[in-house]
Specification:
The protein is α/β, with parallel strands linked by helices. It contains 8 helices and 10 strands. It has an 8-stranded mixed β-sheet with strand order 1-2-4-3-5-6-9-10, sandwiched between helices. A two-stranded antiparallel ribbon has the order 7-8.
């Protein structure tokens, strides 16, 4: 019976786009990594989501080191979430890539879950070493995110900020956050990607509909691939779904690594 190659996981810290410390976790295969990947978590989630851990483990099994981190103001990272927006998340990603470049090797693979998927699509063009991008349940438009707080939009725009409840937790959303969402075109970034793209999406996703996957796939140029996460929910809470997605990404990514 084959055994799973062991991996090494260690906490790391680097400076984010607001000048505050971001908490990361570097997952390494026991043997020297042949390449590195950068993982971006979903909106208001963290690097410690089960799906992120399983993704790192599978990539490690394929000899790929993984850096996953908490965006500013989330998880164990410093800063105030209320002061962030999509642009700052993209800049956090670029700084995470810089940390990998300076301490190990620049990431060749980007993986993003939900809004993290939109963020890696937006960041990839500024990371020349990236050869492959994988998205999981990603929206094709950042403005889609406003459906999570549509009832508070008038208050946000009128008062400048409002408290909203997302997944049972309270967050302050400011007008700047909403305005910034409208400033990005994820489909345009996807069309300009010029990297291999893998789109994974559940046809029954109730948070980000399958039409978003179709829009991303249509906008992208080849090489591009789509894999249906049939029966999975948006957060891949069922371990079998998270493991399947992780296995697909890890196997696919190997094809595009430079020697």
């Amino acid at each position: 019976m084959a055994t799973t190659p062991p991996s090494i996981s260690a906490p790391v810290t680097f400076t984010g786009s607001h000048g505050e410390g971001l908490a990361g976790r570097l997952d390494l295969p026991e043997s020297p990594a042949k390449a590195f990947a950068l993982f971006a978590h979903c909106f208001t989630c963290s690097k410690d989501l089960r799906a992120a851990g399983l993704m790192a483990k599978k990539l490690n099994e394929h000899g790929i080191g993984v850096l996953r981190f908490d965006f500013t103001g989330l998880g164990h990272s410093d800063g105030e979430f209320a002061n962030t927006n999509f642009s700052s998340n993209v800049n956090d990603l670029k700084l995470a890539a810089d940390w990998l470049r300076q301490n190990h090797a620049a990431p060749q693979v980007l993986v993003g879950h939900s809004l993290g998927g939109a963020a890696v699509l937006a960041a990839a063009g500024d990371l020349p070493e990236v050869r492959a991008v994988a998205t999981i349940g990603a929206p094709s438009s950042t403005e889609h995110l406003t459906h999570l707080f549509v009832d508070e939009l008038d208050a946000i725009n009128g008062d400048g900020a409002a408290e909203v409840c997302i997944a049972g937790r309270s967050f302050t959303i400011r007008r700047d956050f909403v305005t910034d969402l409208a400033a990005h075109s994820i489909q345009a970034k996807t069309a300009e990607l010029n990297r291999a793209l893998l789109v994974l999406h559940s046809p029954i996703d109730q948070v980000v509909g399958i039409d978003h996957a179709a829009a991303l796939y249509t906008a992208a140029r080849h090489p591009k691939s789509f894999v249906s996460l049939d029966g999975a929910d948006h957060l891949l809470t069922r371990p079998a779904d998270a493991k399947f997605a992780a296995t697909i990404v890890a196997t696919w990514a190997e094809r595009y690594l430079s020697a």
